[in-house]
Design brief:
alpha/beta, five-stranded mixed β-sheet
Length: 575
Amino acid sequence: MHADRSLFSLPSSTGLTAYLGVSAVLLAVSFDRLHLDPIFTLLGLATTFASTIVLQYLIKAVEPSSIATPRRVSALVLSGTLIWLFAVAAELFYASLFKSIQNLVTITFGAFLVFAFELVVINGAFVEKTRFAGPLSIIHPTLVFLWSGTLARVSILGVGTGAIVVALAFVFIYKLKAIRTLTNDSAIHTLQAFLKTWAAHNPEELERALSRYSVEESIGTMVIKFEAPKKQPTLVLSGIHPGPFFPVGSYNLPELFFEKFDAEQMTALTLHRPGGHEKNIPTRDESVRYAIETASLAAGIQTKNQPADMRGPLLAKIDDFSAACIALGNQALVIVSSSPLSSDDITYSVEGKLASVAKEFGFDVSLVDAHNSIGSKRVKFEIVSDRPWRDLVERLRREEAHEFRVGFAHSSEVEFSHGPDISDAGVGVLTFEVERTKWALVLVDSNNANPVSKEEVKRKLESAGFRLIELCTSDSHNLAARGVAMERGYFVLGEATPISDVASYVVKLAQIAESRLSYHRYGIGEFVSKVHVFGTKAIEDFALLARRSSTFAKRFVLIAIPLTLILLILTAISD
């Protein structure tokens, strides 16, 4: 489902015509007992159509960046019409039982009811300033009320009860505006910023709001670059976390790395490091700048013949997690996977504990979250006792250092039809040959994977003569929040593309990489960038704003709806 159909969407492409036609027909049917003629019905159609066109034009005039479209505005008008018809139908039903029908007081009440409904929607979703939303909300009910002519009976009760409903709507709006973030953004402003981002792909307001929280930090990035005939495969371990969602900030950082590294004759393979969304970059412009800077610095790293210094790969199982270790000289990679269980992002504190242990054995360690399983059971990665991890690092140090050969293949070279669980940076396979054993490190530009993905890839690789080091995903958020087709907002690897197809394709890439095996030349570089990131305060404050707004809205609705129904009943039974 496309984002522009997600808010007030229509079931078919006939859109505006269908909505207006339904409105007119429903009005005509409801008033049939009052013997409306065809001209009256056509006038109703023209009035509804005029309301939609005028409303759409004026909304765009007062707020050009509004997400209002003819489709959404016509949906608003139809929804208002249905609410109006419900009010009128209540009086028609009562009148059919207890009195004769001459004119209807609920037409007047309904006009106020529609005004209140459209005020909440227009001010909440389309126009931020209430001084504009109020007059805009009057257009549709006023035009249709004037069309109703002598059908409507204006009474003090109808006007009074209607005025109470409108007052409730204003109270609701102003209470939401009073709920604010630490940076003084109201709940309504924040909601509209999210809607513009999600429905109209316009993240400017949301990025500005997030930037008001941002703090400048020194972010470390490490790259390991291997020599290759064409594009040099480069492992990228960034301190920036992809996110939050399309198209805000660093949502597609792995894809940006892939694009900018490609311009420097490298293929970026982004690994997921510890940390969470507090390390998101708030703006797209700064994300691009950071990716360009990283690619430029990586391009300057020289690959050269190294001594026979590869230890591992070494595989281990510790508690609910598996660990794959590789050491190039004194630089060690420890890749942790919870497959087939599920785990949250690994915290920086855990990496710090592991780094302290590794330091004792002469290693500089980088912890990598394989991010490769969303299972039914959730576990938390933490180092309660350092003994098993100390034993693992000690085993790695005792491993004999070997020469190795490395080869690489990427999905950009071989066609692969896949679904929206794999993003633009594709699939890469690094193949290592150590002591006549062939190993495969598989990197997929995806946001997590289903629980069976790792085992399926491992099984097919083993049948082709390869041992799996690890299946890693980049945690890209490029495909997150682009629709509502799935509960979590995105597909994990293996949900949109059959994992058996992915595994077979990985084997094909591993075999291509095997044909390119050559003696190692590699280079390692680390550098620090000054980057603005969210910080934990932004996440906590937005979460608090959402909770406060949701709690207020639920409580208000529980009061407002019964009160409105009572006012409707009193109006309908009045003489």
